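README: folding subset

This subset contains proteins for which both the sequence and a predicted structure token string are available. Records are stored as plain text. Below is the entry for 3-oxoacyl-[acyl-carrier protein] reductase (250 residues), shown exactly as it appears on disk.
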Amino acid sequence: MADRVAIVTGAARGIGAAVAQRLAADGLAVALLDLDEQGVLDGADKIVAGGGRAIGLKVDVSDEEQVNAAVAKVAEKLGPPTVLINNAGVLRDNLLFKMTTEDWDTVMNVHLRGAFLMSKAVQAHQTKEGFGRIVNLSSTSALGNRGQANYSAAKAGLQGFTKTLAIELGKFGVTVNAIAPGFIATEMTKATAERMKISFEDLINGAAQTIPVARVGQPEDIAHTASFLVSEGAGFVSGQVIYVAGGPKD
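--- output ---
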């Protein structure tokens, strides 16, 4: 994989940052994309300091013009991107009767429109190279979660998107899979604790009691799975949704 170029969206922190660092450690050149420009620049600098190749770009993945320009720049600076991690995401949680249209649209635009635009732009390079890996970040919330009608629908939509792209792109040497994390300790889940007006520690401890392996997940848990799915060895794995959640719920 040393000659491969990966793009990771939502790479300024949390799962995206961990995946970017892991793919760089695996030998891939990595483009880190996020609205947080300083975050991705710092992440890219860390990879470069460790002997890797990386760039950080400020991109709104829901904006088609920005996406196409970013993918073109990645191809120019690092080489044709053949690995894509669609991780960018936001939360706008609320019960249905309180959820605004803007809350709905924002979540759909980042998660679904963003994955669509990024995949469409990157597949042009993948099909030309005859090799590709797309990994979409879904969630256990795709199975339903109170107060997340928008997020749950978007994450379930990503699973259907994943399976369809796997069918369409397989003959070009491109695999498409999804990772559905359970509770992962990130800034996003910390914000959930703040919104619930409880401590992050209490939220983590409470969640761990419901997880068979008796702990919450870390961003590195997702990075390990992504590393496998983009590898040469995962070439016969496609159209799958892998739940990385510490075990099934009762």
